[in-house]
Write a structure and sequence with these properties.
The complex is a heterodimer of chains A (120) and B (112). By secondary structure, chain A is mostly beta strands. Chain A is built from no helices and eleven strands. In chain B, 0% of the residues lie in helices and 46% in strands. Classes of the chains: A mainly beta (120), B mainly beta (112).
């Protein structure tokens, strides 16, 4: 497997424009996560999905942000309209459902390379 | 989410062991202790995890205190490639929550 694939790797856009970030999780993984990383706030969990259903979106900063997962192999994070303070690196990650009956079962999350977003 | 506390930064020399501490005094009985690291310009990557017993893998060892209120990630022989930010994270098994909540982590510098 090629791992978690994010696109684009870099995005520069003007304030007010719509931005769409894309993620392809690892095949067979049940969970998908979107994170944002900045120097000031570190790694923040924005939203995560289980079996394509959003489970917790409490980290989404405001209504300008939305995320979808139309199928098990694709997710998008959209910012509309974008603002300079949205500039950050956005990571997507995926993991599988653990076997909780097995204490050694790992729920290791695999991260993509990230999308560096710059809003000018 | 139960909170972890780590030193902001640590420094070590190449080929020496490194012990990265983590305090998690509010850990619950169903929390797993996970460690991730983030190399420069990359996404985080899994290092190791444990519940109660000490764990070893090819990357590192995890020593868990008997009361589980603290743990230590051990890199047995640090290389320059181990320079990264190391995150100690608790993940709850019972609630089924799969989310990983990252703190500020420990920035590890390795001197040649």
């Amino acid at each position: 497997d090629a791992g978690v694939i994010q696109s684009p790797r870099h995005e520069v856009t003007e304030m007010g424009q719509e931005v769409t970030l894309r993620c392809k999780p690892i095949s067979g993984h049940d969970y998908l996560f979107w994170y944002r990383q900045t120097m000031m706030r570190g790694l923040e969990l924005l939203i995560y999905f289980n079996n394509n259903v959003p489970i917790d979106d409490s980290g989404m900063p405001e209504d300008r942000f939305s995320a979808k997962m139309p199928n098990a192999s694709f997710s998008t994070l959209k910012i509309q309209p974008s603002e300079p303070r949205d500039s950050a690196v956005y990571f997507c990650a995926s993991s599988r459902l653990p076997k909780w009956t097995d204490s050694s079962s790992n729920t290791e999350a695999f991260f993509g390379q990230g999308t560096r977003l710059t809003v000018v | 989410d139960a909170k972890t506390t780590q030193p902001n930064s640590m420094e070590s020399n190449e080929e020496e062991p490194v012990h990265l501490p983590c305090n998690h005094s509010t850990i619950s009985g169903t929390d797993y202790i996970h460690w991730y690291r983030q190399l420069p310009s990359q996404g985080p990557e899994y290092v190791i995890h444990g519940l109660t017993s000490n764990v070893n893998n090819r990357m590192a060892s995890l020593a868990i205190a008997e009361d589980r209120k603290s743990s230590t990630l051990i890199l047995h022989r640090a290389t320059l490639r181990d320079a990264a930010v190391y995150y100690c994270i608790l993940r709850d098994r019972e609630r089924g929550a799969q989310k990983l909540v990252f703190g500020q982590g420990t920035r590890l510098t390795i001197n040649p």
